[in-house]
Amino acid sequence: YTDGKGAHFTGPAAAGPRLQHARLLMRAQRMPADCAPLDAVLRMDKASDAVHTEATILAAACAAANGRRAEAQQKMSTLPVEPKSLEDVHPYAIGLLQQLRTQA
């Protein structure tokens, strides 16, 4: 169940485990350069706002880490602006968001 493939996780309930898998890949610096696990989370229908927000932050950080600054900026521009939208986002992603904002 650690590979996060669709055969193991399906439907809206899969968003959490897939996001967790992607977060672990980021923390271990094992995320593929194409950020595919995060793109898979972002394509999921009916994922919660918190899951979508966190996946967007991680995807922006992944793009920036792989030299795609314009893509990272574009992803960051889609994030909600109200602080309340970050309440359920994992602290690791919040830290990455702060780093991205200081680099902008």
Structure commentary:
With 104 residues, the protein is mostly helical. 57% of the residues lie in helices and 0% in strands. It contains five helices and no strands. It has helices spanning 15-27, 36-42, 49-65, 69-77, 91-103. Helix 1 (15-27) runs parallel beside helix 3 (49-65), helix 3 (49-65) runs antiparallel to helix 4 (69-77) and helix 3 (49-65) crosses helix 5. The termini are far apart. The model has no long low-confidence stretch (mean pLDDT 90).
Question: Largest sheet, if any?
Answer: none
Contiguous helical run count: 5
Number of extended strands: 0
Q: What is the average of the pLDDT values?
A: 90
Name some characteristics of this structure.
single chain, 104 residues, mainly alpha, 5 helices, globular
Summarize the structure.
With 104 residues, the chain is mostly helical. Helix content is 57%, strand content 0%. The relative contact order is 0.14.
Walk me through the topology.
Blueprint: H1 15-27, H2 36-42, H3 49-65, H4 69-77, H5 91-103
Helix pairs in contact: 1-2, 1-3, 2-3, 3-4, 3-5
